[in-house]
Specification:
24 strands; single chain; 5-stranded antiparallel β-sheet; mainly beta; 6-stranded antiparallel β-sheet
Length: 331
């Protein structure tokens, strides 16, 4: 029969932390494309690092300002007084939202024409009659706001061809997973060299994943990164914060999980903690009369072979390390 091994539970009231890594997948950012333009680029309002929003001016081509407009789908071609349909409905909604009037419905009538007249005046279209709307005045914005990472518009050059990319936002973190420290080599925690594929993280075995306990919070430096409810991946808010702190294309970065100090918490060997058949997390203690007793525990954190727990256990009371399978029941 295997000899029993015991270890005292030690008081642990200080904050705990453990080293982890965050693995990242990347995806291309949003892109802006040229509508049907003809002429010379006379001004460029896009600036790298700035954010372009719904209603902002993008460029001036042949004396007409071109506006970024957020819609479900791009406009195409022209619309005229008397037209009816979903494209007119989309135009009326955009004109109303941008403050050029209050046209409603799916008919290009007098109220739409009046709003288009105000739009033409704003853009420098002459004559401003409102009878016709041209999709060349709008640059399709796929999101309400796009951070400009690069632009291909050049003042004084010919206007780009229809469908040519005119600007793009930086790559974004599409997925960020918390894994064990050392799961990825140090060389992979930095952005790879130019020309090397960086869109996917290395394959990580399931054993590299770790449990993030409810009391733990993920930190990169002093920044608290929000996790999803599954406690393994970063939320959209967390990924946005992470993106601003790492190099584009980096596969992984080192981070820390921290658990606040909890009065009455104890440190026990991780091998003393087991899951019972009922799903409870427990340890076996030695009572003052020499008997053994299983007790439920709540794990606050775990690292380096030690678990920080709260339980009905006295500091100094012994817990059994790696108890026999037959003894692993819990009250």
């Amino acid at each position: 029969m295997k000899a029993e091994v015991w270890s005292p539970a030690l008081a642990r009231d200080a904050e705990t932390s453990r080293e982890v890594q965050i693995l990242m997948d990347w995806e291309d950012g949003s892109k802006l494309y040229a509508p049907a333009w003809d002429g010379i680029v006379q001004a460029v309002h896009l600036r790298t690092g700035e954010t372009i929003k719904d209603g902002d001016m993008v460029t001036v081509v042949n004396g007409i300002s071109r506006m970024a407009v957020y819609t479900d789908t791009p406009f195409f071609g022209e619309l005229r007084v008397g037209d009816v349909g979903s494209e007119v409905h989309k135009l009326n909604a955009a004109l109303t939202r941008l403050g050029f009037g209050k046209p409603v419905g799916d008919r290009y009538g007098a109220t739409t024409a009046a709003a288009v007249t105000h739009l033409q005046t704003k853009l420098g279209v002459s004559p401003a009659s409102g009878e016709t709307f041209s999709s060349s005045w709008f640059v399709f914005l796929p999101n309400e706001a796009v951070n400009v990472g690069s632009t291909h518009l050049v003042r004084g050059s010919m206007a780009p061809a229809f469908g040519a990319e005119i600007a793009s936002s930086p790559k974004q973190v599409s997925k960020a997973v918390v894994v064990m420290a050392g799961a990825v080599s140090k060389s992979a925690t930095d952005a790879t060299e130019l020309g090397v594929e960086t869109s996917r993280t290395p394959d990580i075995t399931q054993t590299a994943r770790l449990e993030v306990f409810p009391q733990e919070r993920l930190f990169l430096g002093d920044v608290d990164l929000e996790l999803n409810s599954d406690r393994q991946q970063l939320s959209n808010l967390g990924k946005t914060a992470l993106r601003s702190m790492v190099q584009e294309g980096a596969r992984a970065t080192d981070a820390k999980l921290k658990a606040p100090s909890v009065k009455g918490s104890l440190r026990v060997p991780s091998a003393a903690v087991f899951a019972s058949k009922t799903g409870k997390t427990c340890v076996i203690t030695r009572e003052p009369d020499g008997t053994k007793r299983s007790k439920p525990v709540a794990i606050l954190s775990s690292s380096a072979g030690q678990a920080v727990v709260t339980a009905d256990i006295r500091p100094g009371q012994n817990v059994e390390i790696s108890p026999r399978i037959g003894d692993r029941s819990c009250e």
